[in-house]
Amino acid sequence: MSAEATSRPFVVSDRNLALELVRVTEAAALASSHWTGRGQKNDADGAAVEAMRVAFDTVAIDGTVVIGEGEMDEAPMLYIGEKVGAGGPPMDIAVDPLEGTNLCAKDMPNAITVVALAEHGNFLHAPDVYMDKIIVGAGLPDDLIDLDAPVGENLRNLAKARGKDVGEIVLCALDRERHAELIAKTREAGARVRLISDGDVAAGIAACLETATVDIYAGSGGAPEGVLAAAAVRCMHGQMQARLLFEDKAQRARAIKMNPGKEPDRKLGLHDLAAGDVLFSATGVTTGFLLQGIKRRTHHAITHSLVMRSKSGTLRFVEGHHNFNTKTWSAR
């Protein structure tokens, strides 16, 4: 192998690395699925975290968690700054071991496990605050959407670009009181609204899928989830804009500390959130508009996952068949 080839660590191993990430999200999904419908969201999340952390020990990276379960003193595992992996190229990791803990606890749609990977410095270091977001899919004119434009204008531009009537456009948002005006203005423009209780990473991805019944995702949700959604949108060549939202001066100061030299209130483009070559994997825990949930039987289970890479734009839907006789940790 030439010296030039060995100097590009992320190019040599990234194809295998993408498939290794699937094993990480599968492990978390299998572990959390034991708690589906049991009403114990913390137990479900804890099982996902533990399984994901163990699975990372087999991945050939020198990984640092930059989007995780919180600070070291708040989260015992997968905290921001934690080192994971079996050794290899340095990578930044964004994780949500169980996105939609309430969804899993109540056996509602769209609970997923999520991991994204990028070279060091390519993910926004997002504090645990709200983030305003707008997302559409691929194949559209550049800069079609604008976070600061009225929602009706964005909907009309999207409908025109898609060759649809505005009445055929479906906007997805979290069902929250803070979105009352967004919902009213969307309906006033003639578009439809699909409300979800949780799980805005899955919803943001769905807005980029041609097979989904969602055309645009908008509204505010968690900033860490926004970075994860951006990683997926990068892989799907969609469009996204965002802005951090602060409830007090302490939150704003935290954002400045995490991203020195950057204006915390600036409008963020897709590459501000997730740059470079990005890998993304998600596994369904409960069936939703993105993935099938886990089908558990006494001695085996079937998982459905989505794995993507921004460089190639390839999306792979992976069906895994797991034998609990050999994966004893997932059969608790």
From TrEMBL:
Keywords: Carbohydrate metabolism, Hydrolase, Manganese, Metal-binding. It comes from the Bacteria. The keyword Hydrolase applies. Pfam families: FBPase_glpX. InterPro entries: FBPase_class-2/SBPase. NCBIfam families: glpX (TIGR00330). This is Fructose-1,6-bisphosphatase. It comes from Acetobacter musti. The gene is glpX.
